[in-house]
Design a protein that fits this description.
Length: 214
């Protein structure tokens, strides 16, 4: 019995993945490192620190330098986030959140991003979500199951009553490790391990989702 939907944020409800990419790219250029869109695919869904490690491709840096680089990237990212508006919700996202509310199903945002609460506020969807688990939680980031398990605990639900909506391979892996079903948004090469694969949330309705997951 499905009682809750746990949504990843970046790349699922809004296209912040593009802002993350632009911010990392700006940092990479300043450091004289190459960083393509293809390189960026590996960063989808992973934490800020792991992302930096992937960007550096083995280049050694001190802890102080790493901290400073992450701070810089975040500054660039926030320049974009501060300009976000409810119109930056991806097509279908608001409708689905509304349908879940009307159907009395619980909802949570489960994101590796420390900026998730700010993004939720900018998108104006705080009223439509029951809980936010973000990258500040004292837990391992995706692909570990921790963040999803924490959300289930906060919603007082067993993991198998929760369905995850994710755009990252690391997120699908985390959902399955948590004992939850996963809906993957995006190409099969990325989210093919999910229980249900859809291109995005455009035109997606709760009734059909529940049927497809049955
Ligand atoms: C994830 C994004 O949601 O959050 C990653 O998919 C990002 O691209 C990660 O690196 C951490 O975000 P932040 O805002 O804490 O740097
Ligand atoms: Mg994502």
């Amino acid at each position: 019995m499905i009682r809750a939907f746990l949504f990843d944020l970046d790349g699922v409800l809004t296209d912040t993945s593009e802002f993350h990419y632009q911010a990392w790219k700006r940092l990479a250029e300043e450091l004289g490192l190459s960083f393509s869109r293809e390189d960026n695919e590996a960063l989808r869904g992973v934490s800020r620190r792991q992302s930096l490690a992937l960007l550096l491709k083995g280049r050694p840096v001190s802890e102080a330098e790493a901290e400073q680089m992450m701070e810089r990237k975040n500054r660039y990212y926030l320049e974009q986030v501060r300009q976000m508006q409810p119109g930056d919700l991806l097509p279908g996202a608001a409708d689905l959140l509304g349908e879940l509310r009307s159907a009395n199903l619980r909802t949570a945002i489960v994101s590796s991003s420390k900026n998730a609460p700010l993004v939720v506020e900018r998108l104006g969807i705080a009223e439509l979500v029951d809980w936010i688990v973000d990258g500040n939680a004292p837990a391992r980031s995706k692909p570990a199951p921790d963040l999803f398990l924490l959300a289930a605990e906060k919603l007082h639900l067993p993991p198998n009553a929760c369905v995850v909506v994710e755009d990252a391979a690391a997120g699908i892996e985390a959902a399955h490790a948590a004992g939850m079903r996963a809906i993957g948004l995006g190409p099969h090469e990325r989210v093919g391990a999910a229980d249900l694969v859809l291109p995005n949330l455009h035109g997606v309705h709760l009734n059909t989702l529940l049927e497809q997951l049955r």
